[in-house]
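Exercise: predict the structure of this protein bound to NDP.
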Amino acid sequence: MTTEKVHCLIIGSGPAGYTAAIYAARAGLNPVLYQGIEPGGQLMLTTEVENFPGYPQGIMGPQMMQDLQAQAKRFGTDIRIGLATKVDFSATPHKVIIDDSHEITADSVIIATGASAKWLGLDSEKKLQGRGVSSCAVCDGFFYKNQEVVIVGAGDSAAEEASYLAKICSKVHMLVRKDEMRASVIMQNRVKNLPNIQIHWNTEVEEVLGEEEVTGVRIRNNKTQALTELNASGFFVAIGHQPNTHIFKGFLDMDEQGYILTKPGSAHTNIPGVFACGDVQDKNYRQAITAAGSGCMAALDAERYLAAREVALSHA
Ligand code: NDP
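Solution:
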């Protein structure tokens, strides 16, 4: 195992991680950033981003991430490929293991590991991922213009994505496993009022059909157990997200879904010197702009923490 000492370690490379890096680098903290398993994060799966302030014509998600990376690099961030596989926050300085082979001792750690889409877990879903199976209607809906699609889920995300798909696709089958939806009433009403959305209540997916690409879905009514097949060329899963926090369990306070709890109005976690920003600590807003804003907060909090610690050490 190789070892290294780092002043400010950033884990994750979405808008939160890169914004933290820009601020930390400009503050002279010499940040080292590990990109993780999905460099660029969820925006790499997006097409056009139209709601990030400063881009009146919109910008492609992957382009935005390249720009953020270049900006972080410009101020001296050491950007590396690698995945944090283990941590030990039981003592300061904190330890983070990268790729099970490199041990970093860090004076401060900024966690920006984001959240990943949940899947149903069917073999057929996995087999056809990227070939009709998607977790992002906004990214992939366009490929199914004027075609029939299926979306699974009944929360606000599913309702929002179903409404989005209804604008592009000829028909949207929305599969809801209960006889009610979890989505807010306003979002439910929106999907119920769109004529090309058909809601299938008490319905679960047996199999996504197709060899090379999605051709349909076999569904089961969980009240009657009746099996039916729907024709569809797109299969969208919108059943929530899972924060990427498993390596921090046992050290950091989290809510019941595994989102890291930060002290209100800050990026501080329960461990001094460890900060969290972006979707890993936000299940509510989950926007590029809010992630970037919280990345800025994390870097400023880290800078103040390190400055206070240096003052304390110099008086020790
Ligand atoms: P949620 O956790 O709120 O909803 C997940 C949905 O997926 C539930 O309806 C759940 O069903 C269903 N589900 C879970 N697992 C399965 C499965 N294996 N098979 C079938 N269905 C399944 O996640 P969301 O991503 O929708 O929302 C997350 C948060 O973000 C919420 O707080 C939401 O309000 C917020 N949000 C707000 C938006 C807005 O205001 N514009 C837009 C998007 C999200 P069940 O109900 O049966 O458990």
